[in-house]
Design goal:
10 helices, globular, 2 domains, Ubiquitin-like (UB roll), alpha+beta, 13 strands, single chain, 8-stranded mixed beta sheet
């Protein structure tokens, strides 16, 4: 059959029952802590594990660590030590309790944040607007690929039938790779990630999960850990997850990371006027946001935001009620109830959630204007 030719990794074919025999061994009083960080590409994740003598109850219980930045696009070989500073802790769904996943910020030898450590500034900006209680929900689209880069379950020569039956589809001819989606969902729940849903997307082998509502800095923390868990689940199944915003050229939907945003004022009666004011501010800062919404300053999104396939055109800012072809969509229920949230449809699937959420706060709450972010450290 056409499915038997699917290119999966060699390690996925190792005997899992044999592995389980070792995973079932008691580990005594020791705890395995997997430290996770974002590498110099701004998209890739790295991880390594250390043993702790007892179960950490809070971030303060986790020691700082270091790694060789010259192998992660983060430093030169001559001065390569980088610092890992734990910032968020989750239960480990792969090794199970009492083991932990530890999200870290990366700092250089001089204790300055690494170039792709976008969390550091995001945290400062979020602390300035705590009283506004900014809530975010992010919709992470992704594509499953074989190890040869061919979409999962697609015929090895050619294409599946055109888009239409796949979105929220059910059946072997419509949903490609549901096992991965189910495993990821349960692993996120176990870990303590604020995952709130999943669905099959418009392109076959493309799926989406949603994380939120999360307040402030938690949005970025939870989305990055959810991405890490997805990479790790896919590794077990021998396939690859791609967050590329346009994995297949042609008449196929791209992949975004639609970001839903609200503040305390927007959620209260009459909040629609606050939403409209925020959208007006966003309209004047379109170029700044496009530059922040993918790791290549807008170049990745240029392949996706064409004005077709449920996207807006990258050159133009637009807003509308229930309009999936607009930059900003106001859900119909929000327009009717005159309060709630809005959806920014511009962020790319491979965006960094820290800078996306930060830029929304800067423009809508701190009321910044102009091409670049304001520096508050001075």
């Amino acid at each position: 059959s056409r499915f038997s030719k699917m290119a999966t990794s060699a390690s996925s074919k190792l005997n899992k029952a044999v592995k389980q025999q070792y995973m079932d061994l008691p580990q005594g009083s020791k705890v395995q802590a997997m430290y996770i960080w974002i590498d110099g590409s701004g998209e890739g994740l790295r991880c390594k594990t250390r043993t702790l003598n007892s179960e950490p109850k809070s971030i303060e219980d986790l020691p700082e660590w270091n790694f060789d930045g010259s192998s992660t696009y983060q430093s030169e070989g001559s001065n390569s030590d980088m610092f890992l500073v734990p910032v968020a802790m989750f239960r480990d769904p792969f090794r199970k309790d009492p083991n932990k996943l530890v999200l870290c910020e990366v700092f250089k030898y001089n204790r300055k944040p690494a170039e792709t450590n976008l969390r550091h500034t995001c945290k400062q900006v979020m602390s300035m607007v705590e009283n506004n209680h900014p809530w975010f929900g992010m919709e992470q689209e992704y594509t499953l690929l074989g190890t040869d880069g061919h979409p999962f379950g697609w015929p090895s020569n050619g294409f599946p039938g055109p888009q239409g039956p796949y979105y929220c589809g059910v059946g072997a001819d419509k949903a490609y790779g549901r096992d991965i989606v189910e495993a990821h969902y349960r692993a996120c729940l176990y870990a303590g990630v604020q995952i709130c849903g999943t669905n099959a997307e418009v392109m076959p082998a493309q799926w989406e999960f949603q994380v939120g509502p999360c307040e402030g800095i938690n949005m970025g923390d939870h989305l990055w850990i959810a991405r890490f868990i997805l990479h790790r689940v896919c590794e077990d199944f021998g396939v690859v997850v791609s967050f590329d915003p346009k994995p297949i050229t042609g008449n196929w939907n791209g992949a975004g990371c639609h970001t839903n945003f609200s503040t305390k004022e927007m959620r209260e009666d009459g909040g629609l006027t606050v939403i409209e004011d925020a959208i007006e501010r966003l309209g004047k800062r379109h170029r700044y946001h496009i530059g922040a919404y993918d790791p290549k300053g807008g170049l990745d999104n240029a392949r996706r935001l064409t004005g077709h396939h449920e996207t807006s055109n990258i050159q133009e800012f637009s807003a509308g009620v229930a309009n999936r072809g607009a930059s900003i969509r106001i859900p119909r229920s929000v327009a009717q109830e005159k309060k709630g949230y809005f959806e920014d449809r511009r962020p790319s699937a491979n965006c960094d959630p820290y800078i996306v959420t930060e830029s929304l706060v800067r423009t809508c709450l701190l009321k910044e204007e102009g091409e670049g972010p304001t520096d508050y450290s001075k």
